[in-house]
Design a protein that fits this description.
Nuclear Transport Factor 2, Chain: A; single chain; alpha+beta; five-stranded antiparallel beta sheet
Length: 132
């Protein structure tokens, strides 16, 4: 009995679907969630991205200084979240010191499309910090 190629393709596709959906081939759920379009996920404790994310925070402060003719100096990254869009939107909370040395907490959003070598600060504002 001869089996048509199209039938074999359909059987293989069904088998692969059942195989992956049954959990036989598991991906870690947290890494799968990070790739869902539009979802915002905390990446603060991911050490493999630490330097890259801190560089984005420094970039946001520099961009703010240029646009507002101000002199903020990056102090530290407090919190980082990532959102998958057409590229990635990083939601960062950081501390920066003004010219007088007073440290404030800021929130920024940075849109990154690495395949286009594109980085743009979408928002930079003083955070509603209960400790200030």
């Amino acid at each position: 009995m001869k089996v048509k190629t199209s039938t074999l393709i359909i059987i293989t596709a069904v088998f692969l679907f059942v195989f992956f959906e049954s959990g036989v081939c598991r991906m870690e759920r947290s890494s799968m969630n990070q790739h869902r379009l539009g979802g915002i996920y905390d990446i603060t404790d991911q050490h493999n991205n630490g330097v890259e994310i801190e560089d984005l925070a420094r970039f946001a402060v520099q961009d703010h200084n240029k646009k507002q003719n101000s002199f903020l100096k990056f102090a530290r990254l407090i919190k980082a979240k990532e959102q998958v869009v057409a590229g990635k939107m990083y939601h960062l909370t950081l501390e920066a010191a003004d010219a007088a040395g007073k440290i404030k907490v800021y929130e920024t959003k940075i849109w990154v499309k690495p395949w286009m070598n594109f980085k743009q600060v979408q928002e930079f504002k003083v955070a509603n910090d209960p400790f200030v």
